[in-house]
Structures are given as structure tokens and as C-alpha cells.
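Note to self: keep these together.
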Amino acid sequence: MVRLDKVVKTYQTRRGICKALDEVTLSIEKGRFVLICGPSGSGKTTLLMTIAAMLRPSSGIVSIEGQNLYAQTAQARARFRAHNIGFVFQEFALVPYLNVVENILLAGGNYLQRGRLAVAGTATDHAYELIEKFGLADRIYHKPCQLSAGEKQRTAIARALLNRPKIILADEPTGNLDADNTAAVLRYLAEFHRQGGTVILATHGPAAKDFADRVVYLRNGKIQRP
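Structure:
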């Protein structure tokens, strides 16, 4: 389902060229739960954002279901991402002046107009279903500053699931959570996986290993053998 072929991503820094990804070749089959493990700075976030069609590699090919993502226009990539990929950020990435349901609905083709949400899609019913499922019904009109870390991450996961994606990419989704909320987030991702979805989760901790059916080790931008 996902294939990377000799993918390189470099950044220019004051100290010279930094190679965040170093000729990464990787194939991930449909319906797998894959952990990308490695220490901070190993390239995990760069790898996920490259797969998510959000960060163009310096060289190499990234394809999902046979489509070369970076051979497409930016608009085509955005459409593909919206219909196929859900992304869960470590720092939640919620819009601070929108409430829970508005933050979730942003993934449904809705947009901000003069600071207000203009509802353009038909995903409202599904958004409310996700709010119930993730135990957010009593927080529906709360803004991010009024939520706990666990509630913020549940909102972020609901947003990622709104469009019923084929793939969930999660970047350290439990890094800011306590043990109970960590377990809850992993259960939600495991349920998506059991229903046939593909999960690619970046982490430097051991908590998710019991849920995964494959572990990929990344260090200094390179795939390592375990």
C-alpha cells in the first residue's frame, strides 16, 4: 500500500546539510499496524510527513496504492490526502479558537472564514458519532484551552478519522499523555486497524509494541536492522 524508494530529505542548516532521511526504502502492506521506532532526531516525523504528502522529499519516490504522490500537483496531493490519510500530531494541532466539534469538522472540507467555520461538507453526523465514541459529548463546545491533554488527543484522533481514511499516520500520539490516556489512544488506533485500516505510528517508547504487527527501526535517517 505504501512504498518508499530511496527517499532522501535534506535540510540546509548553519552547520551545513542535514540529511533527515538517507535513502529510505520501505514497503508497508495494506492493513498493517507498523511502528516506526527510533530516538529523537532519527527522522521519524520527517518520514511520516513525507508519507502523508505534506513534505516533498529531496529525491526518491513515495507512492500509495501505486500513485506517485510527488508527481502530482499540490492540489491533487491535498485531495488525495483528504480522502485517504488521517494524521495525528504529537502536539494535537487544534485550532485554539474553535471548539471540539469545529476542530473535528475542519477535516471534512470545511474552512475558516473571518475566524468562523464555514460548513461545506456533509460529515456533521459522523463528527457527532465520533464525539460520542471518544467520550467527548460533554466537551463538545469546549475550546482546546479548556481540555485535558487526553481530551485534546481524542479530538485530534476524531478529526483524523472524520473522512474514513485508509491510513492513519500518528506522530508520537502518546508522548504528552499519562498511562491511562496512552492506553485509550492505542486502543482507538488498534480498533481502526482491526477494521482493516493501516496504521503507521512513530514512537520512541515501548507502549505501542503490543499492538503492532511490525516494527521498523530508524536511526540517523536510515532504516536499521533490529
